[in-house]
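Quick review question:
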């Protein structure tokens, strides 16, 4: 069931009833450029939150920092009530917060199944006690492969299991990225533009996967530029501009928020926010 966030005041930094991720005073500078400065942000557990904003707003940088792939200049954040500031990405992932990445060229040269297996955080065979006890190691490997096959089946990629990932279409790659992220049974996934380059038929299926994950209790946060997608699946929308959260709220509220419209107009010089609406502009 979608979380009911309708009674929450749509303001930047507003408290949520059951926040899973809480960010405070987070700053990330690159030289003289302050790429991210988020005073306070809470992500509701069990909801789909879309992170929107024009190019260069700081969305990917925020994802990188909170997932442990980049270090903040200052600030702190907690996940599931525990401080995770400064932790390495693999420790944050082990705690249940996982970020997806686009398939690199190297991963394209591996099979779909090997891509999945590589996403397992704990390669037990490499740890001494397991390496000395082959039955334990093999059991671990078999469990990882079984889970990988289960997910490939769920994402309808089983028939491509032994193909090189580089032969997949754009949409199939996106499905594989999502499947990889789920191998560790995360509590929350951060998806960076899961729909980009995906044809309409597969986009529909990806959207169903997103809502399916949410309905199973997972917390989903995704960066998206297509406002029709954002309107279609999000329970809550956070808009960034120039590194800061400038607006947040339910999708229909955020789309009409002057701060959001300003952010896009300022960035694109006249190109309106790309959401089709029946209303005439006032
Ligand atoms: N490694 C880096 N070194 C220097 N500047 C960076 C680096 N990473 C990001 N930036 C800058 O930080 C700002 C925020 O970039 P970021 O990629 O987080 O934005 P974004 O909202 O994800 O944009 P997009 O929607 O285009 O992906 C931009 O001005 C970008 O040029």
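Suggested answer, residue by residue:
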């Amino acid at each position: 069931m979608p979380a009911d966030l309708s009674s929450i005041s749509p303001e930047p930094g507003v408290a949520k009833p059951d926040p899973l991720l809480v960010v405070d005073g987070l700053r990330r500078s690159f030289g003289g450029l302050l790429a991210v400065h988020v005073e306070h942000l809470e992500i509701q557990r069990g909801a789909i939150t879309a992170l929107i904003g024009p190019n260069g707003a700081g969305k990917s940088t925020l994802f990188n920092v909170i997932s442990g792939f980049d270090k903040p200049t200052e600030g702190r954040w907690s996940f599931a009530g525990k401080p995770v500031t400064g932790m390495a990405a693999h420790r944050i992932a082990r705690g249940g917060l996982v970020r997806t990445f686009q398939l690199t060229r190297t991963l394209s040269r591996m099979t779909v199944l090997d891509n999945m297996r590589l996403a397992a955080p704990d390669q037990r065979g490499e740890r001494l006690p397991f390496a000395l006890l082959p039955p334990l190691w093999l059991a671990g490997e078999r469990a990882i492969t079984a889970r990988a096959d289960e997910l490939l089946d769920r994402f309808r990629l089983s028939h491509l299991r032994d193909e090189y990932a580089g032969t997949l279409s754009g949409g199939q790659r996106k499905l594989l990225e999502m499947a990889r992220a789920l191998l560790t049974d995360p509590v929350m996934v951060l998806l960076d533009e899961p729909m980009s380059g995906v044809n309409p038929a597969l986009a529909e299926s990806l959207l169903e996967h997103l809502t399916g994950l949410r309905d199973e209790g997972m917390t989903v946060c995704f960066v998206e530029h297509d406002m029709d997608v954002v309107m279609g699946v999000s329970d809550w929308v956070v808009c960034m501009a120039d590194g800061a959260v400038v607006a947040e709220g339910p999708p229909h509220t955020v789309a009409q928020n002057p701060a959001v419209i300003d952010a896009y107009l300022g960035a694109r010089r006249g190109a309106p926010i790309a959401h089709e609406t029946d209303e005439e502009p006032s």
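Why it works: The CA atoms of residues 93 and 274 lie 33 Å apart. Residues 19-106+168-265 form a domain with the Rossmann fold fold (CATH 3.40.50.300).
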